[in-house]
Design a protein that fits this description.
This is Putative nucleotidyltransferase-like protein. With 404 residues, the chain is of the alpha/beta class. The chain has a domain at 319-384. It is built from 18 helices and eight strands. The longest helix is centred in the N-terminal third of the chain and has 35 residues, at 65-99. It is globular, with a radius of gyration of 21 Å.
Length: 404
């Protein structure tokens, strides 16, 4: 049985904001929060959902036995998975060299490669790889030879999973959860309708067979910010995304930031950088924020000014009727966004079906099997909780009950 959802909503807000402060400032000797057991369990849910449990195990000074055990266990699971992922990347690199195939490992893989994180610090749910359009078939052969099969295709990427192994039910990371691979030919996001594509600044100018790094820290930052923007648009950003950006920002100088403006206005970069600055208050140079304010549309600029991590993430319990509409670049685009909510395209319907089929947190949930019309009617008559949030909350409650 879940506690009253009103208590869950308030508890997630309280614990999420406290976790963000604890991670960003890492203040030695900070007082342990005076939380009840439900709030400690919700803190575990928020830490797992935001991908920060392993980092907190190294920096949090809060003293609560079940909390400490959870963090330590999560770090052990993540470190074990990191070794597996590192070994898999080595195999991909060796096979790609033999095949003459250039590949760019993206996001988490790249952050580990440049030393921003040590083994066990940062969870990686999957491996993201970028290849040229002409190399897709060769990449599929490579992944097939490594024991992978295609799971589904979306407009952003193809998803491959190991032929053997199933996801593990539970809270947070598990060492035995299979490592999926997402194969990209473009680096792009829909915000919420128009597509922003930055592939040209991500793919190396002179690639070599095997694994290739990003061309520069500025290129990596561009990708992290666009990815965060896409998640902000869907209200699914994670604290680990903000931590990634803050750490990389400390390595950048003025010329690195200039890459953001290569190929067009990075209007989409202001909201994620503002959110980073809210919690990591010295990470982003003021001149970058000032310049981006001139690029960002007025409505989005206004709304992003006061947004919190809770509001921008799954820590906000209730579903939003029109997530991301403030990102629309025109009234026409806002109209298309509204139309798509009431009359989803065939592509949207297929994507939803693929999610229901493949995502563990949607298994057995009656909400996702309702007709589109019934879901709209339900949203108009009462608040509807997010399924991903309820999944992690239930897992945290079960974890807490089993550890007492």
């Amino acid at each position: 049985m879940l506690p009253p959802l009103g208590l869950v909503r308030k508890g997630l807000h309280r614990t999420t904001e406290a976790l963000a402060e604890e991670l960003a400032f890492a203040r030695p000797g900070a007082a342990t929060p005076d939380w009840n057991e439900l709030e400690w369990q919700l803190a575990s849910a928020a830490a797992a959902a935001h991908g920060i449990s392993p980092l907190l195990s190294q920096c949090s000074t809060w003293r609560h036995p079940a909390w400490t055990r959870f963090l330590v266990a999560q770090r052990e699971h993540v470190e074990h998975r990191h070794r597996h992922i590192a070994s898999l990347l080595e195999r991909i690199d060796a096979s790609a060299r033999v095949a003459g195939l250039p590949i760019v490992p993206l996001k988490g893989s790249a952050l580990h490669a440049i030393g921003l994180y040590a083994a066990g610090d940062r969870p990686m749910a999957d491996i993201d790889l970028l290849v040229r359009d002409a190399d897709v078939d060769a990449a599929i052969v490579l992944l097939t030879d490594l024991g992978y099969v295609e799971s589904f295709v979306q407009w952003k990427h193809r998803v491959f999973k190991p032929a053997m192994g199933e996801p593990i039910l539970g809270l947070g990371e598990h060492r035995d959860t299979p490592v999926n691979i997402e194969l990209h030919t473009r680096i792009q996001e829909r915000l919420p309708i128009s597509t922003v594509d930055i592939t040209e600044r991500i793919y190396p100018a002179d690639p070599r067979p095997g694994l290739n790094p990003y061309p520069s820290n500025g290129a990596l930052m561009s990708h992290l910010l666009l990815h965060a923007a896409g998640n902000l648009c869907g209200r699914s950003v994670r604290l680990i995304h903000l931590n990634d950006i803050s750490l990389l920002a400390t390595r950048m100088v003025a010329r690195d930031w200039e890459v953001l403006w290569a190929g067009g206005s990075p209007w989409w970069a202001l909201p994620p950088l503002r959110l980073v600055s809210r919690y990591y208050r010295c990470a982003v140079p003021l001149f970058v924020l000032a310049r981006l304010q001139r690029d960002c549309p007025l409505l989005l600029r206004m709304i992003s000014r006061g947004r919190t991590l809770t509001q921008a993430s799954c820590s906000a319990l209730w579903l939003h009727a029109l997530p991301g509409i403030e990102w629309a670049q025109s009234l026409r685009e806002a109209g298309r966004c509204l139309h798509n909510r009431f009359r989803p395209s065939e592509e949207n319907i297929k994507e939803r079906a693929d999610m229901v089929r493949t995502q563990l947190w949607l298994k057995g949930q009656s909400w996702v099997t309702l007709s589109h019309g019934r879901r709209i009617l339900t949203r108009l008559t009462r608040p509807v909780p997010r399924m991903d949030t309820l999944y992690v909350v239930r897992a945290a409650l079960e974890y807490g009950a089993s550890s007492t």
